[in-house]
Amino acid sequence: MLIQRGFRDKLDKYINTNAEFEIYMDTIGGFVFDYTCFGVDSVGKLSDDRYMVFYNQTRSPKDEISYSASGTGAKYIVNLSRLPMTITKLVFTVSIDGNGNMGAISNHTVSINQNGSSVIDMQLNGCSFHNEKAIISIEIYRKDVWRIAAVASGYNGGLSDLLKEFGGEEISSSGSQSLSGVSPSTFNQPIKSNKPVELKKGQKVNLEKQAASNEILINLNWSQPSYGQGIDLDLGCLYELKDGSKGVVQALGHRFGSLTNPPYISLDGDDRSGANNSGENLRINGKMISLIKRILVFTYIYEGAANWYGTQGIVTVKCPSSQDIIVRLDEYGSNDTFCAIAMLENYNNETFSVEKLIRFFRGHEACDRAFGWGMKWHVAYKD
To answer: Does 333 score more than 90 pLDDT?
Structure first.
C-alpha cells in the first residue's frame, strides 16, 4: 500500500504487531545521511537514552529495535511486543551530516515489510521539502493500539533540532551531544566544533565520517616524574584486519608497520625520554577503513618504575576537519606496566568508534587474552 504525507491508521490492519517486522529507509542525494530511531515516552521525550538507536548504538536493551546499514539507507528490525510500557512512540528520522538540505534530494523512501513482503510504502522527493536538514519520516505510536503516522516534515537545524525536540541538548563546553538528565556515555558522537572531546572511561564516540577517510593521528605525550627513576613510555597497538590477520605495531621488535601496505598503520618512531614535544605517534590510513576491523591502542613502561601518576600521560586522536578526541591516563593505582588506552572499531566501513579503556595488565600477553586477540608472544628488545 502506498501512503502519503499525513496518513494515519491502525498498524494492525496491515501487519501482525505482535511479530517482528522491518522498516527500510533510504534517501538519494549528494549528501551523507544519518538515520535515527527515537523511542520516546508519553510526553514525547527520550527519557531513556538506550532507546536512541542509530549507527553509534545499534540495539535497544532487549533487541526490541535494531539498526543496520543497508546500501545507502538503513534497516530497522522492530518487535513492538518487547517494548516496555514506558516507550509509547518510535520516531524514525533522517538527517544530513554536513551541508545541504532535504529540498535538494532526489527521493526519500520508507518501506515496512513483514514475512518477506512489503505492506506499506512511502515515496517522497525533494519537492516535498525546503531547507530542512532533518526530517521525521514516520512514527509508530501507542494509542489504545499501535498506529502509524506518515509525518514527513522536519527541522532546518538538523540533528541539533531533533535532539531538542526529544529533550536533548548540545553541550558546547565539552563538544559532545547529550540529553538533559540522561547519561551521555552510550551514544556520544562528536559535533562540529573546534573544542576537543575528552572521553570518560567506558565512553565511546564516532569520528566524523568525512574526517575519518583521511589520515588519523594518535599521539601519546607524557611528562617525567619529579622524583625517582625516569620513565620510557612506548606507544603501540594491536590490530585485526577484516581478512582475519592480526598483529602488533610497536618499537619492540622493530614492528613499525606501514601506511601503504597491511596493516595500514605505522609508528613514527621511539621517544625514550618524553622530552620530544611531539611525543610518539601512530598513523592510520583512513582510506583503508573498510579493511580494518579493530585497533587497540596501548602504552607500556619499557624502562622505569610503574609510576603512572608521574607520567601524566595523554593520548590525542586527531583527524583533519574534526575535533580532537582526548584520552587521559588518569588512573594511577596500578603497579602493572602495560595500559590498554583505547579501542578503535570499524563502524559500517565508514568510520571508527573510539572507546576509552584505561585497563592495566602485566604485559602484552595478558592484554591479548583479555580482548581475545589470540596471538603468540615472545620476548623482544629495542636496540
So the answer is: no
